[in-house]
Amino acid sequence: MPDLVADTEHAARAARAGNDADERRAVLCAAADLYCLLRSYLRRTGRVDLATLAADRAMRAAEDADDPLRIATAQWNLGHVLLAAGQPAEAEELALRAAEQVAAARMPEAERAAMGGALQLVAVVGAARRRRWWEARDRLTTHAAPAARSVPDTSNIGWTVFGPTNVALHALSIEMEAGETGEALHTADAIDTGGLPSLEREFTFGLEVAACHSQRRDDAAALLALLGLEAIAPEDLTLTPLARHLVLTVIRRARALHARQAEQLAVRIGLI
């Protein structure tokens, strides 16, 4: 990754100094894509400081390229950095402002719907993190869900995975964070993540299901969900604070059989 960043920065400097406008724009678009990818990786590995830097570079490259889709994608990435940094109000404000810009931008309708909806989901998470449950639910149903009706789950525009299933996943998240675990698990029963082009969303879905079971003190079900997550994304299981907390909770609270299985899982992921 460091070599790729260095090569991209060198290419961007050369393109800026050249006279080929099309080549310059193509290089800057590639730089924006790279830094959005890097932002996601850094956030998942807990380096929010570097993720913020990557998001800022993505925004700079997208604006220099004058590419509306990548500008919206960079804003979406920056919103997620703010959420990870514990600044939900700022993330919500940025996302809503960016959604307004997307609505007025010259973009194909599919891109406008997907990016506008994805930014609304950032605002939904921001409201939920501030415990404004009604506002989060209302924004989900009145803004994000209508946009998702015209965006297939497989489109993955701007690598946001926006679509009907992602909206349903956010509905689950709201109820889980609100402590409405019965409603959250009922919502989860109707979700099929098999068609999503994102392992991260599949992992997050399973993690939130595990959290719901843990909130209900159903440690056997929580352990089963965690073992499923180990099968699809062991690295994320190791790095995600909530996952580590859930494993330790099973060890501490579950019956002996399940506690031993959780201990073995903790050893495999380097937790103990």
Question: Explain this structure to me?
Answer:
The chain is an all-alpha fold. Among the domains are: 102-195, no CATH class; 198-272, no CATH class. 79% of the residues lie in helices and 0% in strands. The protein has helices at 2-17, 21-44, 48-65, 68-84, 88-104, 109-129, 133-148, 164-178, 181-189, 199-215, 219-232, 234-239, 241-253, 256-268. Helix 6 runs parallel beside helix 8. The longest helix is centred in the first third of the chain and has 24 residues, at 21-44. The mean pLDDT is 94. This is Transcriptional regulator.
Percentage of residues in helical conformation: over 70%
Number of strands: 0
Please mark out the parts with pLDDT under 50 across 5 or more consecutive residues, or reply none. Answer: none
Question: Which sheet architecture does the biggest sheet show?
Answer: none
| Rough outline | globular
The H/E string reads: HHHHHHHHHHHHHH
Mean pLDDT: 94
What fraction of residues sit in β-strands?
A: under 5%
Radius of gyration: 20 Å
In angstroms, what separates the terminal alpha carbons?
Answer: 29 Å
Structural category: mainly alpha
- The number of helical elements comes to 14
Organism: Streptomyces broussonetiae
Protein name: Transcriptional regulator
InterPro entries: TPR-like_helical_dom_sf
